[in-house]
Design brief:
By secondary structure, the chain is of the alpha/beta class. It folds into three domains: 227 residues, Thiamin diphosphate (ThDP)-binding fold, Pyr/PP domains (Rossmann fold, 3-Layer(aba) Sandwich), CATH 3.40.50.970; 154 residues, Thiamin diphosphate (ThDP)-binding fold, Pyr/PP domains (Rossmann fold, 3-Layer(aba) Sandwich), CATH 3.40.50; 124 residues, Rossmann fold (3-Layer(aba) Sandwich). Helix content is 42%, strand content 15%. It contains 25 helices and 19 strands. Helix 14 runs parallel beside helix 20. The chain is globular and about 90 Å long. About 3% of the residues have low confidence.
């Protein structure tokens, strides 16, 4: 498709100059750019294809950046980026030093708040809205949230706080899952058409004012008619959650009809109370492969645009975990699997089909998932909560309060531990080892290979207290075999030791071999259990003259600092992520920059050895 309009859009103001037919062509060009770039760089495809018209309508209806538009999670903000002066840079999406796959304030004034995790848009946008009102800056704020993110507790807390506030705060619900029930039929469609006409609201407001001015009977009549109207609305729409929270509900509207969307947003802007504009969209719109399998095209790697995504069925840590859990569930009726809207990502799809009565997808609600798992454990079950490391951060209190204090045997399967790559700061799994190791009674394993992961899972059945098994994104780098020991030593009692754990142990093995070829013998101590650290391990580490601890996690409070403190070793060097967030880059590139790749390990050991 010839790029006739997209390259000329330098700001949202340029959108307002286009007519309807030109907007249709623009949306086609945006979809082509989305497919072409994501097919090369990977990223979130189906969700972005579904919000093209919605994003165009938002930017035509509001005046960004004075008006703040916050996309929940932010994984569907690609069109927003192209329309706000970043089209030329869009080819660098999710690449090192390129533009982020999420909203980043440091990247553009059009990104008012950092995003990456679900359900925060309402709270953030309302905070900006109130700040503007207090400071007198003017401008409004709009939260765009999907039906999935609306399941998060933070979104519900925000709804409860914002409702009945008598402020014209606008929430756009991007609904790409729910369908309009067929039993409401033509009545629903008729009411929708009426409700989407500004004249309806002018008439409604005028009628209310007229009734309220009539002495004695006006107010009772108004209340009576309002009650009838609310009851009728509930019967027709069967969706009064938002009005219960105190929001004006507008919709449902066709999320791919720009005129209808703009009309709905115009109505919302005219209200004197919080509003929800319910836009129904098709995930994957305009790309047949993504429309047919939106879940599979949510987050994708590079693919051929002509043939669609060749589904990647190769083995990885998540799939190995899912398969092992299925085997365990077959043999033990207590085994349950819990996930927070990440069934496919955490490898639990097969489990969900084979053992539906023992599988629980609780939606985007990690806190609930932990406490629910605690309840399962209290009831005699063996719950396994599979969750990305960065998402488990949300449930720290529940891990402590609802499972650890009572010593409940919940097993946390911490997926995407360590560097995850192109999703950047909000998704790096660099904190779990540190915060889990602060919890009394918690045990943490960090398998570096598939066989180790399976071995840890089998061992977990015998635990009567909380346990975490953390493992990286992607494939194993070395086929480490499971040994039922706290640590493994590779070497023959050298005076220098490298200590590490997890997937970067493969780098350490390669470094050990290279150092030996250079005439320097180094022992490698691989930690299998990273918390608690045994007295035996501490005694063994203390015997070395010099210790190098490489850690794919944060330095402060990390496992390296724990071990250094326990041993009191005076010649102990820790190489870890020190007081910073790690931006988007390939995993290999990030490891190199952090000094955790093979070459860096070699240079660190040789450099320190040269300095005595």
């Amino acid at each position: 498709m010839e790029n006739k309009f997209l390259g000329k859009i330098n700001s949202p103001e340029d959108l307002k100059k286009l007519n309807n037919s030109e907007l249709d062509l623009l949306c086609g060009e945006i979809r082509e750019a989305l497919i072409n770039t994501v097919s090369k760089n990977g990223g979130h495809l189906a969700s972005n294809l579904g919000v093209v018209e919605l994003t165009v309508a938002l930017h035509r209806s509001f005046n960004a950046p004075k008006d703040s538009i916050i996309f929940d999670v932010g994984h569907q903000c690609y069109t927003h980026k192209m329309l706000t002066g970043r089209y030329e840079k869009f080819v660098t999406l999710r690449r090192e030093n390129g533009i982020s796959g999420f909203m980043r304030p440091e990247e553009s004034e059009y990104d008012p708040f950092i995003t990456g995790h679900a359900s925060n848009s309402l709270a953030a946008a309302y905070g900006i809205y109130k700040a503007n009102a207090i400071s007198g800056k003017g401008g409004t704020a709009v939260a765009v949230i999907g039906d999935g993110a609306m399941t998060g507790g933070l979104a519900m807390e925000a709804m409860n706080n914002i409702g009945f506030s008598k402020t014209n705060f606008i929430v756009v619900l991007n609904d790409n899952k729910m369908s309009i029930s067929s039993n409401v039929g033509s009545v629903s469609e008729h009411l929708k058409r009426i409700r989407l006409k500004p004249g309806y609201y002018r008439f409604k407001s005028g009628t209310e004012n007229f009734l309220l001015k009539i002495p004695l009977i006006g107010k009772p009549v108004f209340k009576f008619l309002s009650k009838i109207k609310r009851a009728f609305t509930r019967q027709v729409y069967k969706n009064n959650m938002f009005e219960t929270f105190g929001f004006k509900y507008i919709g449902p509207v066709d999320g791919h009809d720009i005129s209808q969307l703009e009309n709905a947003l115009k109505i919302a802007k005219a209200q004197s109370q919080p509003c929800v504009v319910h836009a129904v969209t098709v995930k994957g719109k305009g790309y047949s492969f993504a429309e047919q399998q939106p879940g599979s095209y949510h987050g994708v790697s590079a693919f051929d645009t002509h043939d669609g995504l060749a589904m990647n069925n190769t083995v990885n840590f998540s799939s190995v975990c899912g398969e092992a859990l299925c085997r365990m569930a077959r043999e033990d009726s207590r085994v349950c699997a819990v996930t927070a809207a990440m069934t496919t990502g955490t490898g639990l799809e097969e489990f969900s089909k084979k053992y539906p009565a023992r599988f629980f997808d609780v939606g985007i609600a990690e806190e609930y998932a932990v406490t629910f798992s605690g309840g399962l454990a209290a009831g005699g079950m063996k719950p396994y909560f599979a969750v990305y490391s960065s998402f488990l951060q949300r449930a720290y209190d529940e891990i402590i309060h609802d499972t650890a204090i009572a010593g409940l045997p919940v097993c946390y399967l911490v997926d995407r531990a360590g560097i995850v790559g192109d999703d950047g700061e909000t998704h790096q799994g660099l904190f779990d080892a540190a915060f889990l190791s602060t919890i009394p009674g918690m045990t943490v394993y960090s398998p570096a290979g598939y066989d180790e992961l399976v071995g840890c899972l089998k061992k977990s059945l015998d635990f009567s207290a909380p346990l975490a098994i953390r493992y990286p994104r992607g494939k194993e780098k070395h086929p480490f075999k499971f040994t039922d020991t706290d640590y493994t030593i590779y070497g023959e009692s050298a005076s220098v030791a490298i200590v590490t754990y997890g997937v970067i142990t493969a780098h350490a093995l390669a470094a050990q071999k290279a150092l030996e070829e250079k005439g320097m013998r180094v022992d490698l101590i691989k930690l299998n259990k990273i918390y608690p650290l045994s007295d035996e391990l501490c005694a063994r580490v203390s015997d070395y003259d010099k210790v190098f601890f490489f850690e794919e996690g944060i330095l402060r409070g990390g496992i390296g600092q724990h071990l250094m403190s326990l041993t009191g070793h005076s010649n102990f060097k820790i190489i870890a992520v020190d007081d910073k967030f790690v931006p988007a880059a390939s995993i290999d590139s990030a490891h190199k920059k952090l000094g955790l790749d093979t070459e860096s390990m070699i240079n660190t050991v040789l450099g320190e050895n040269a300095n005595g």
